[in-house]
Amino acid sequence: MTNSFARRISLAVVWIAILGFSINFYLDNAVAYFFGYRSPRFGDTLLNNQLWFVVHMIGGTCALFLGPIQFWTRIRERYINLHRWLGRIYIVGSLIAGLIAIKLALVNGCQACRYSLITLSMLWIFFTAAAYLSIRRYDIEAHKKFMVRSYVCALAFVFVRMPGVLPMDFFFSMIESPAEQGIVSEWFFSLVPLFIAELWLTWIPSLRGTAGRANAPAI
Predict the structure, then answer these.
(1) Residue 137's pLDDT is what?
(2) CA pair distance 168, 189, nearest whole angstrom
(3) DSSP E strands, 22-125
(4) Is 144:218 a contact under the CB 8 Å cutoff?
(5) Which of 85, 88, 90 is nearest to 68 (CA)?
């Protein structure tokens, strides 16, 4: 098995896992809102946070499911105009979802979780804006890396609900309090994926002496 083939298989497994968790999250947490369901924690009327949440879900949907297409090398190379237009939709959707997420975090029932959600939302907005500014300067390598960071932030809303698929005790068995487990979960699944992305994008290439070169890791 060649290194190139092994890399393709590894990437395929990663993307299948990401899409699997994304679809599971979407079916469990998003679809119902488009068919009339309203969560009491976001108010009991359309204008009392409910509308904001639906718009947040629409923007998040664009980011969650357009991200994999944007990282598809064949589409980027063969259908550049499609890549650009989908990229614009991704950026607008991410910025809208990120901005509204800050507002919704302020009404989150878990007060301690608000800090992690606001931090994550601000990072999502920054990375998305940085990706846009980078491509406007034709800095393709910086654009790719900021897009990866932006998409990891979009996926964080999937990651923070992974304990719903795998029991919370599976990850945080040393914490007895369910409330504390929830808080740690918010921080852990919001920020650790970003650390892993940074390890792959920057830290390992820096140790290898390849950071900033054309062959730096990219999806």
Answers:
(1) 93
(2) 12
(3) none
(4) yes
(5) 90
Q: Is the dihedral of CA 157, 158, 164, 168 positive or negative?
A: negative
pLDDT at residue number 147? 95
- For the chain, helix (H) and strand (E) counts, in that order, are 9, 0
CA distance 52 to 38: 12
Task: Tell me which residue of 192, 197, 195 sits closest to 218, measured CA to CA.
Answer: 197
Helix (H, G, I), strand (E, B) or coil at 213: coil
Distance of alpha carbon 161 from its chain centroid, rounded?
A: 12
Residues comprising the chain, all counted: 219
Q: Which residue type sits at 174?
A: M
Distance CA 37, CA 29 (A): 10
Q: What is the pLDDT of residues 135-146, one digit of tens each?
A: 999 999 999 999
DSSP state of 201: I
Cβ(93)–Cβ(60) below 8 Å: yes
Say yes or no to pLDDT of 47 above 60: yes
Distance of alpha carbon 185 from alpha carbon 162, whole angstroms:
9
Please, which pLDDT band fits residue 39 given cuts at 50, 70 and 90?
Answer: low
User: Please, which residues have CB within 8 angstroms of residue 185's CB and are 6 or more apart in sequence?
Assistant: 160, 163, 168, 171, 172
